[in-house]
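Fold it.
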Amino acid sequence: MLSIIIPALNEEKYLPLLLESIKKQSFSDYEIIVADAGSKDNTLLIARKYGCTIVVGGLPGKARNEGALAARSNLFAFIDADVVLPDNFFEKSIAEFNERKLDIASFCIKTHPENKFINFIVEFFYNKPMMLLEKILPHAAMVIFVKSDLFKKLDGYDENITIAEDHDLARRANKVAIFGIIRSVEVFSSDRRARKDGWLKTGIKFLLCELHMIFIGPVKSDIFKYKFDHYNKEKPK
């Protein structure tokens, strides 16, 4: 069994796309937990429609921790609410996860709506560096698989971190377990943050965040003004 944990806040436009992509999977041995941070739209109605368990969430780190507390399986899949999964995603990724004897893993991404130029940028500036640094400086975002016993050993996400708490989890895990990037399948992630804030501004922000993590440590201040609920007026294309 797999426990799928989704942090959410006002995700009525994107959550149905993710849940529908999960519903279409050939793999069906899962539970879905939506950790909601107080949505004012139809997020909870949508979650109930798809049979999700709902727990009280918060910022992403806290939401994932709360979801994990309610989870029943020995493998967690933390998935952002604006992700869409390709066909046979779980079947391929879990098989590779087990074959490589991984304890924690993340994925390369493509954007949706699909844009060849943007995907080239993402491939060159995120996917390829992430794979090159896989064993040296792990990166994990959008979708993360982690064994429940390892997650508990790490005391879950550090809820004091304001940005890149997922990279921090991967780097802490890499010290005591086996981290890897799944290569058999990619995930589709919305480019709404970059479209809203600007690609250059977003890229610089995450580069500075990376440098902060390397030379200073995890970001626990609001220096980067990172927002969780930032897209209420956005419409998926």
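The chain has a mean pLDDT of 94.
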